[in-house]
Design a protein that fits this description.
Radius of gyration: 20 Å
Helix content: 40-55%
Number of strands: 0
Number of helices: 7
Order of helices and strands: HHHHHHH
Strand content: under 5%
Distance between the termini: 29 Å
Shape: globular
Structural class: mainly alpha
Length: about 230
């Protein structure tokens, strides 16, 4: 089955997680509050950084022009949790999307199954169509796996208390997460940056295929086909 359509659907279905938790009136008065030391945003050097973004979180460069982070620590952590989860889904999707377009037809033919791609060879999505080709049982499996990770994340958060790191679901089978504080911060920074790039890349896939109606692997083959 096609991994890309699943991750895209999950991204869209969870989009409500980005809605600001606090009222607009509070947000409008604290969106760009300059700190006492005159600290400016790293992302927008001409503007004071939002007060809530003090650089304590990995990947925090003071960029929040729409105030999604909220005005308190709790709302900020909730948004960071949502950002990490969306980023992880996007990192899976930007791999699954082109792989499906490159190999789905061949694998389906070898297994005697119908291809899950659209008639023009695109990955199934809300804009491309083709989601009706995916068996209902597959969605149930995906929802079950997602539920397991959510439960693990909730259990980890309860067990670690104040030591809980946003996005920690207790899953690190190959022990990539460092033990020291500096190493942990660096690894979290790498993950959030890769996740942000993946979300932008996935958006590019969606827009490009919606506009040109051909697979992204055919539109930009130099990214997806070997040079030799």
């Amino acid at each position: 089955m096609n991994l890309s359509c699943v991750t895209l659907a999950a991204l869209i279905g969870a989009a409500s997680a980005f809605a600001p938790a606090s009222s607009n009136s509070r947000l409008s008065t604290q969106l760009f509050v300059e700190t006492k030391d005159g600290d400016m945003s790293k992302a927008l050097p001409f503007a004071a950084r939002p007060k809530i973004l003090d650089g304590a979180l990995p990947g925090d460069v003071g960029f929040d022009p729409f105030g999604f982070a909220g005005v308190d620590r709790e709302s900020l952590i909730n948004m960071r949790e949502a950002e990490i989860k969306h980023g992880r889904l996007a990192m899976l999707a930007v791999i699954g999307w082109p792989i499906a377009e490159l190999f789905d037809s061949q694998l389906a033919a070898a297994l005697g199954l119908p291809s899950a791609l659209t008639n023009s060879g695109e990955s199934p999505s809300l804009l491309n169509g083709g989601l009706d080709k995916i068996e209902p049982e597959y969605w149930l499996v995906v929802l079950g796996i997602a539920g397991i990770f959510e439960i693990d994340s909730s259990d980890t958060k309860e067990a670690k208390g104040k030591d809980y790191i946003p996005g920690d679901c207790g899953f690190d089978p190959v022990k990539l997460f460092p033990e020291d504080k500096e190493g942990k911060f660096d690894m979290q920074t790498k993950e959030i940056k890769h996740g942000r790039i993946a979300m932008m890349a996935l958006l590019g896939f969606v827009v490009q295929e919606a506009l040109y109606r051909i697979p992204v692997t055919a539109e930009t083959p130099f990214f997806f086909n070997p040079a030799f």
